Amino acid sequence: MPKLQRSDFRCLHRLRVRWAEVDMQKIVFNAHYLMYFDTAVTDYWRAVALPYEAAMHQLGGDIYVAKATVEFHASARMDDMLEVGMKCSRIGNSSLTFTGAIFRGEEHLISGELIYVFADPATQRSQPVPQSLRDILLGYEAGEPVFSVRTGAWSDLGPQASLIRTEVFVDEQGIDRDIELDDADADAVHALAVNRLGQALATGRLLVQEPGVGKIGRMAVSRVMRGSQIGAAVLQALMTAARERGDREVRLHAQRSAVGFYRRMGFEAHGEPFTEAGIEHLEMVTRF
Questions:
Q1: Is the pLDDT of residue 174 over 80?
Q2: Which residues of the chain are in CATH 3.10.129.10 domains?
């Protein structure tokens, strides 16, 4: 395999070498590089905005490893910060070839190639790669967006938005369904992120708290898609809607675990922490 550069990859998965991954020579044990590549493939599905299990179910198949190749150029060591590049380099009739490379800074340490076969999960017999999956993978490698965000009324976006909110707030966080879904949805501006299969990934809503002041709430991102900038895109869409209708300020109640995210998006803490629906929150504010 030829040596590659970080710039050859749109998807780069970052990791630090752990003590358990090095051998008696104090370098990464060779088998762990396959684990690094496999982990990067999981991140690749997130990068193309496909929640793997739900996406494969909709596509009517699954992928199975047919061949895995690793080529060693240099070794990684304990505590090295690595980046694992991953790209879909070829799509055959029923096969998907992923090319990977592991970098320490700009130094190319390891090359890898993973060949998968798209198959029927019941029989594991190969079948053609669906055209929709081809389009998503080729589009991503060509630099195309892999999801879109729409804003609109509950009557339009509610059926899909409620699926994400139920998944996150009711099923994951244990909030009572009667609290999560309320009458305010009918008057709110809603934002919904969907992937190229039309699957809902994230949502949020914008209310009028008082004249000139908007309130963003019900921000929810599907668990497997967190860390992929989709939540940021939904928040930006709601802030744009607030700005366009003339709001001068936007407030929200951030769960403590999300305070850092909102700070990075330009919000500042306001007041003391409080409990809402059994979860600690902090009010945060941004002004235009």
A1: yes
A2: 6-141
- Residues sharing a CB contact under 8 Å with residue 134, sequence separation 6 or more, in sequence order: 91
Q: Which CATH class is domain 147-287?
A: alpha beta
Kindly tell me if the per-residue pLDDT of 58 is higher than 90: yes
d(CA 34, CA 46): 19
Q: How far apart are CA 280 and CA 288, in angstroms?
A: 27
CATH 3.40.630.30 in the chain is located at 147-287
Say what the pLDDT of residue 203 is.
98
CB atoms within 10 A of CB 47: 19
pLDDT class for 10, splitting at 50, 70, 90?
Answer: very high
Q: What is the fold, at CATH topology level, of the domain defined by 6-141?
A: Thiol Ester Dehydrase; Chain A (3.10.129)
pLDDT, averaged across the chain = 96
pTM confidence score: 0.92
Give the Cβ contact number of residue 141 at 10 Å.
15
